[in-house]
């Protein structure tokens, strides 16, 4: 009887030490690492529109599931200058339907970057089932939005925020509506290295 009790005691002791030595995995960390491998990603270049020949950009879009993350890096631009970044229908004039995504400011070397969250994939589109009243924040704003079936916007463009900055860079001083108060300068980068109806955002499914 005493021998049996001794064997049971040793078994329990070994089992207890074995349990203590087995540390649980950090499942959240493992899941995040594995899930990162599953994120579809595309990357592509933006090219100069014409008046700043050395300008170029690189874009990386990563699917996060419900939304995408877009990282934009630009270089060869005038230093310490503000630019406005848009998602657009076609890369060159007349640009089609366009969405103001955000701003990019260059540093003293003419480099800049922007990080944006949104829908940047084959599901990027604009739709207006019917005309509707629109707020008139600026005198040039429309008072009514036009009706349109879904229109996909797979291209990107970058504009000078100020026409004076464009002129200092040797570009035309044309005023365009591509900033918050519709007094931007000309376009400096776009995705015209892709066909009009096959913009790069459409590559991400």
Q: What's the helix and strand layout?
A:
Blueprint: H1 2-21, H2 27-37, E1 41-48, E2 56-63, E3 68-75, E4 82-88, E5 98-105, E6 112-118, E7 125-128, E8 132-133, E9 144-145, E10 148-152, E11 155-160, H3 163-168, E12 187-190
Antiparallel strand pairs: 1-2, 1-12, 2-3, 3-6, 4-5, 4-11, 7-10, 8-9, 11-12
What does this protein look like?
The chain is of the alpha+beta class. It has a single domain (32-135, 143-203), classed as Immunoglobulin-like, CATH 2.60.40. 18% of the residues lie in helices and 34% in strands. The chain is built from three helices and twelve strands; from the N terminus they run ααβββββββββββαβ. The protein has helices spanning 2-21, 27-37, 163-168; strands at 41-48, 56-63, 68-75, 82-88, 98-105, 112-118, 125-128, 132-133, 144-145, 148-152, 155-160, 187-190. It has an eight-stranded antiparallel sheet. Residues 1-36 have low confidence and may be disordered.
* CATH class category label: Mainly Beta
Biggest sheet character: 8 strands, antiparallel
Quantity of strands, as a count: 12
Note the quaternary state here: single chain
What's the average pLDDT?
86
Fraction of residues in helix = 10-25%
């Amino acid at each position: 009887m005493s021998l049996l009790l001794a064997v049971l005691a040793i078994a329990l002791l070994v089992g207890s030490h074995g349990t203590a030595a087995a540390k649980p995995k950090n499942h959240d960390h493992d899941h995040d690492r594995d899930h990162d491998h599953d994120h579809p990603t595309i990357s592509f270049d933006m090219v100069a529109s014409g008046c700043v020949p050395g300008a170029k950009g690189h874009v990386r879009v990563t699917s996060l599931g419900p939304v995408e993350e877009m990282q934009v890096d630009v270089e060869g631009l005038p230093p310490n200058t503000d630019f406005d970044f848009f998602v657009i229908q076609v890369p060159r004039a007349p640009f089609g339907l366009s969405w103001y995504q955000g701003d990019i400011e260059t540093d003293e070397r003419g480099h800049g970057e922007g990080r944006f969250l949104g829908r940047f994939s084959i599901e990027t589109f604009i739709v207006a089932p019917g005309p509707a009243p629109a707020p008139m924040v600026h005198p040039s704003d429309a008072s009514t939005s036009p009706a349109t079936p879904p229109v996909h916007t797979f291209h990107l463009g970058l504009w000078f925020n100020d026409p004076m900055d464009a002129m200092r860079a040797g570009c035309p001083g044309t005023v365009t509506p591509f900033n918050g108060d519709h007094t931007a300068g000309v376009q400096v980068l776009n995705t015209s290295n892709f066909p009009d109806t096959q913009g790069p955002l459409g590559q991400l499914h």
